[in-house]
Every structure is written in C-alpha cells, then in structure tokens.
Fold:
Amino acid sequence: MHISVNVDGVTYADEVEPRLLLVHYLRERLSKTGTVVGCDTGNCGACTVHLDGHSVKSCQMLAVQANGHEVTTIEGLARDGKLHPVQEAFHSNHALQCGFCTPGMIMQAIDLLADESDPDDETVRKGLEGNLCRCTGYQNIVRAVQDAAQRMKPGAGPKQEQHSDEHISSKQPVGGE
Amino acid sequence: MIPAEFKYMFPSTVDEAVRMLAEEGEDAKVIAGGQSLVPVLRMRLAAPTALIDIGGLTELTGVRDDGDSLLIGAMTTHYEVQRDHLVQDHALLLRLVTDTIADPQIRHRGTFGGSLCHADPAGDLLAPVLALDAVMIIAGPSGRREVPAAEFFVDYFTTALAPDEILLDVRVPKYTGWGAHYEKLNRVAQAWSIVAVAAAVQVRDGAISAARVGLTNVGSGPLRATEVEAALVGQQASAEAISEAALRASSGDGYKDNLARVLTGRALTAAVAG
Structure:
C-alpha cells in the first residue's frame, strides 16, 4: 500500500506492506534508528514517538495507520545542532546509564511537559508509567524531567535572551528624527 | 514478532465499512486504535485475512450531549474521554476509570469503543459501562440496532456484536452530581486489574438515593453488584451501611471474592465522599 508520512519535518512517500509496524518503517526504511524496539508487548515504551504531537508506541501501530500523519522521533528534536532542553536535562542530570530507554523516555517526557509545565515527583512518575528503565531506578530521570521543566519555563533562556519591560522602554526608537 | 499477512482496507463512511465487513467474511477484523489488536496480531494469537481500519470515520469521534444522556463515539480515544467536560459533568465515573487505563501513550491511541468490543474481562471500561446502564448503538448490513450493556457482554472476549457489525456510539445516561470512584488493585505500573470496583452513588440529604456498582475481572465478563446497590438505597451514607452492603459484592470465599468485598467497601466510601 502507498503511504505518505511526514517524519521529522520531511515528507516520505513509500510503498509498504500493510503488516509493517511503524517502528520498523522508521528504522529499516528511513534509517531512523534512534527509535528502538525494547519489547514485543507494548509495555516498555522505548519505541515512543509523537504522532500529530501526541506520544504513541510505534511498535503498537502499523505504518499504514500513520498515512497522512506527522511523526516526530528523537532524531527530530535537535535544532541547529543544539539539543532539545529535555535532551540537555537528561544529559546534565545523568538520567541514563545504558541509554536504551532514553529515546522513549525523552519523547514521553516532552509529551508530559506539554500537559504539565511544572510537574511534581508523583506527576512525573505517573506520566512516565508507560516507559521502563532497567538501570537508573528512575531517580535521575524524574530529576531530569523536573529540571527540563525549569529550562522550558517562559523566560528561562540565557540571560542575554531575557527581556524586561524596563529594558525595552528605556530604549530609544531607532532611526528617528 | 511481525503480524501475518492481511488485506488492509480504509473505509471513509460507516456504510462502506459495513459493506467491506460483509464482503470479507467472518475472518475480517475491524481495527480502531489497535492497542489491543496490534499486540494480538504480533503474537500471532489472531491472523485475520483482512483488517478494516475505521480510523478515517471521524463521525465516530467525540462526545455529544443528547438530552438525558451522552453519546460517546466508539472512536473517541481514552485521552479525549479524560478531558471531555461532558464526561466530567455527567459521567464522572467514566473519567476516573479512564485515568487508570494502561499508560499515556496507549490512552492517546486506544479507543472507548475498541476496549468494549475487545471485551477483555480485565478491561477497565466494561464494568462501569454495565453499571451505568449504557446502551450500544450498532450498525450492520440490515441497519442499526441498540443493545443494552447487560446483553452486549456475553463472555470472555465475546460480545453480542456479529462479525459483520460495527459499534458506532455508546449511549450513557447522565449521572449529573453523582459521586464516583474506581478502586483498582494491581501490582505493578500499567498492569491489568486483578480486581477493580466501579461505584457511582447519588446522595441526597445524607442518604443514598441511588447506587451503581460494577465489578472488573471477577467473572468471565463484567458483573453488576445488584445486591450491593439494593442494600444501599435508602440508607444513610455511613461507614456502617457501606460495610454492610459491601459484604454482598460476592458470596464466595476465594481470593477474588474477598477482594470484591474489600474493594467495594473502599470504592463506595470514596464515591460517597466525592
């Protein structure tokens, strides 16, 4: 069957077998191996991607079901060579050991933070219920998600990018007279 | 594992979907969100010859106000049910139950109607839908028909839906202002209920005027605890009345019978408080 899917901002048109799983389409046809397969049963969440902005398990979907939709994978997060704030937070909080669950954890954390901009411990754990980690014991993952929430707060960018009303109003109009 | 081969079909209307089902015969299967069916296909527990994907039938999505009841489209996702203000106001029990289904990723794809048609006895939506006297609106080759939940759930993974029929909507009477709670026992994250109890209670002037209680994963399908409901009506909403009524949730002495009684007590206590 013919499908057309936008993945990480690029539209792909492909002929696929109906039984092809979305995760296998991403990995084997598009070489987006950042999305991994951890289990066969839909429990582990390692294959989490976004479909039209919401997290889904790409091993629980057929590629044909993504026809006409937009998919974002872990490979589509970085901008201009800079990591996404959630990726940065996982890095600086040591929220991974073997790293296998990390792509799914990060994709689900972004989904969670879209709903909950300042989640407490319990909310993070509940939001990551569908993602299993066998190394970290989750402590640093929870910490990283909360750190990411702070990094993504409005006005949380680097000092030089922050504006205050005072700064703006004290500025003289350019090219006046 | 990879599913066995099948023919994939994508109807754009309900009538077209029903026609496809009739043409493909009883080895065809409808796929909604696929959160139960795709794992089943992958483990090769089923190998339908054709999959009819109703993901394009947008008229089956969303919750509508229909006077004394709500109409919940079969393709409404769990995520949408959780956030729907009509469900929140008139069928609080369904929102509370849906909050506990699987995990966020599954709730983004899994559908209200899909869960009911799959009819896993451990599925969370069956008992509350039964207890709330919901009615299934079904389309087939000879037109539409309505089946009360009490007749819809037949047995373990079996419903009254014929192989050539599709669930369109679920009509749920309004339970505006009722207290509700879903008490679910499981051991690990995202696991199925070992046993769960869905309770909705109407309290007027400190007395229970009406009650609905459904049991998940105690029998081969959802059960309604009618004796508990009858024992509550007319009683003061007190701890004594609740614990006395909860004893009627099951008469057996097995592990699940005991759980049914204990969890019914907890569910009613929370429902009365809320």
User: Anything to note?
Assistant: Chain B touches chain A at residues 1-8, 10, 31, 34-35, 38-39, 41-43, 51, 53, 55, 79, 102-106, 108-109, 189-190 (CB under 8 Å). DSSP finds twelve helices and 14 strands in chain B. The first strand of chain B starts at residue 7 and ends at 9. Chain B has a mean pLDDT of 96.
